[in-house]
Amino acid sequence: MLRWILGGREAQGTVEKNSLLFIGEEQPKNWFTELQVLKGHFDIVRFLVQIDDFRFASAGDDGLVLVWNIETGERLLELRGHSQQITAMTAYTHAVGEDTHTSLITASSDRTLSLWDPDTGNRVQTVSDLQSSVKCILVLERLCVWVSGGNELCVWNRDFQLQCQSQQHDDTVIFRLTMSTGSQLSVAEVRRLSDHQDSIHALINVNDGLFASGSHVGELILWDTIDWTIMAYEHILWEESQSNPQAEIRLAAPKPSEMSIHYLSLDVFVSYVLTKSVVAYRKTAHDSNILHTLLLPDEGLMSCSEDGSVRMWEMQDLLLPAEPASAGFFGMWTFGRSSKQASPPVKKILECPSLKTLELTGDLIGHSGAVQMFLSFGEKGLVTCSTDHLLIAWKNGERESHLRSLALFRKLEVNGGL
User: Does the pLDDT at position 166 exceed 90?
Assistant: First the structure.
């Protein structure tokens, strides 16, 4: 089953700016009725990384990395060392003898990279002679290396030793990482993704042979990873509805709005893409730009926005005529095509009796600023971070009440009653 979530933003000047489309199975409800505010940062919190089943790390513009316990909300460690804002953070799990150990890798605008031990809070390794700040970090566990990207691409081993690097680049580029018989690594540029008309904001791996990219002007391209040709191309457009159709007679068709693609999520790939249809959509999902969306392990769908909200959705039948939608980002795909269409395809109102809408089932209101992202711990709860400098742990109220009751009964049993 192929499941895509698209969180978009329309062109400037439009009213309905933010949309969600979803392809997948029907989603059950998720309820978070209890919250715990976690204080520790004094600037925007942008990153959340899970360390294990109980711990996570947060980082942002204050240069701090804080380690927390999701169940208790306790701040376990403060990792201090960066002098400027954190620009990237990831977990790095590697073998230590017969066991595994998870470390944290952070990058900062101070042009340093750091490796942290979240058990002790020690900074184990550091690199401070970078030519520019790192914007993203990718761990390649199979090769026991990790990659840092910015104005240049660098490949590092687990000991923070530079293995190879590329020349400086400004575009979105595909690189090939090659390991020789002597375990020597080399990186070479394969292709620049110049087929998009604007900046690429989203990349996702579909399977070993396909990946997809989304651009600022709403282009979604499916690529072949063998010869880097375009397998499918779709320009996502919404037909603008007329608020007062009787005010004047329009001879021309409604002007379509371009949707900026900011996030793509894929769960499991099978052959669902061949149906080429949108299962559910919600054109007005938030009051401002969507920053992050996520499929939760229990099949819930969530999104967060610059409007400060985190919202939960489920699919429901579209009983009455609703806002018009395009044929969807699968609607015009033709597999096997090696180049994109010369002109934008003509969009039609979607005629699908099984089309559903994404209905709001929960709205987590707690932040006073834009919610940057969130991190799910399943039944243990959800963590959100924001520009208001706060983190909030959201819990299932019934579960937490049950756990408190069990703890009270155990304490009474130990103390021999009241």
Answer: no
| Cβ partners under 8 Å of residue 173, min gap 6 | 153, 166, 189, 190, 191, 192, 193
Domain boundaries, the chain: 4-79+195-241+253-415
pTM: 0.76
The residue type at 270: V
Is the separation of the CB atoms in 89 and 105 below 8 Å? Answer: yes
203: confidence class by pLDDT, cuts 50, 70, 90:
confident
Most distant pair of Cα atoms in the chain: their distance: 83
- The pLDDT of residue 1 is above 60: no
The architecture that CATH gives domain 4-79+195-241+253-415 is 7 Propeller (2.130)
Most confident residue range from 194-203, 221-230, 244-253: 221-230
Query: What whole-number distance in Å separates Cα of residue 105 and Cα of residue 88?
Result: 8
Count the neighbouring beta carbons within 10 Å of the beta carbon of residue 221. Answer: 21
Q: Are 262 and 304 in contact (CB under 8 A)?
A: no
Higher pLDDT, 33 or 89: 89
Tokens of residue 285, six digits: 């999902």
Average pLDDT value for residue range 347-359: 56
pLDDT score of 115 more than 60: yes
